[in-house]
Design goal:
The protein is built from 3 helices and 8 strands; from the N terminus they run βααβββββββα. By secondary structure, it is α+β, with helices and mostly antiparallel strands. The chain has a single domain, classed as START domain (Alpha-D-Glucose-1,6-Bisphosphate, Chain A, domain 4, 2-Layer Sandwich), CATH 3.30.530.20. A 6-stranded antiparallel β-sheet has the order 1-6-5-4-3-2, with helices on one face. The radius of gyration is 15 Å and the shape is globular. It comes from Heyndrickxia ginsengihumi. This is Activator of Hsp90 ATPase homologue 1/2-like C-terminal domain-containing protein. InterPro entries: ASHA1/2-like_C (IPR013538), START-like_dom_sf (IPR023393).
Length: about 140
């Protein structure tokens, strides 16, 4: 677990190459049904400024869409902790797409995350392991299925 030059935890970054065209991958990350199929239930809409909720294990988490550049990039604020989630898609050829998930906006390691009542560093470790499984297994299986 590393920190940046402000003393905050580094962003989490997970990349996977999937055997699917970019449009299929885009639909999986830019629709409520697509996101729910590999992440969590939600009421997402692909509109900048749209406020929505992700149904997390700790209850509903408020989110807000901050960027959409179809079919290559989507970002949203997640919860009240300042987290930023970005999905970045790069077409490799007509049949394969590189998908990168970035989870940024982390605080200093010892800051308590109120909803979980744990240190940011503990949540970071849990989320880092979770994103590995979600991106490399669940997301890949859904997109390639």
């Amino acid at each position: 677990m590393e920190t940046n030059n402000q003393g905050n935890l580094q962003e989490i970054k997970q990349t996977v190459i999937v055997d699917a065209p970019i449009q299929k991958v885009w639909e999986t990350v830019s629709t409520p049904e697509g996101i729910a199929s590999w992440f969590m239930p939600n009421d997402f809409q692909p509109i900048v400024g749209h406020e929505f909720h992700i149904q997390s294990p700790f209850g509903p988490s408020p989110c807000k869409v901050t960027e959409i550049q179809a079919p290559n990039r989507l970002s949203f604020l997640w919860d009240t902790e300042g987290w930023i989630i970005s999905f970045i898609l790069n077409e490799l050829d007509g049949h394969r797409t590189e998908f990168t998930l970035i989870h940024g906006g982390w605080k200093e390691p010892d800051v308590i995350v109120p909803k979980a009542n744990k240190k940011s560093s503990n949540i970071y470790d849990t989320m880092q392991q979770g994103w590995i499984k979600i991106v490399s297994e669940r997301f890949k299986k859904v997109v390639e299925g």
